[in-house]
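It would be a great kindness if you could assist me with a short task in structural biology. I am sending you one protein, given as its amino acid sequence and as whole-number tokens for its backbone shapes. I would ask you to consider whether the tokens describe a fold that such a sequence might reasonably adopt. The full record is reproduced below for your convenience.
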Amino acid sequence: MASCSHWWHAPVYFIASAVLAFIAISTALNSPPSKATRPTRPLSNHISLNASRTLRESGFNIMATLLLISPEMFFSSPNTTIFAIKDSSLVNTSIPPWFLKNLLKYHTSPMKLSMEDVFKKPQGQLLPNTC
């Protein structure tokens, strides 16, 4: 029987899923009910699926999973740019769920930026984020 060198992926994904479930439930419980809730548009679901697939293909598996589970954390406006966090930066952390949620918001900008736009920015310039 061949040994799997990626045995540690299962516990990482399980922990990430548990943290995300906690964030989703606590957000839902703490959010006031809105009078006019818009149904989720199929287009935003399609964009979320494509973005998640692209992230996963580039090795950002945790960010891809987070995007599928809770796209509303990332898509605060129609023109959103997500700055992905490396899996290795999230795997061995024991941060509380509320901090993880804020960290993800910090890596999401409500501006639509191309790679060219990002590279034109002077180094050290802050971009608006959803925090």
About this structure: The first strand starts at residue 81 and ends at 82. Confidence is low (pLDDT under 50) at residues 35-43.
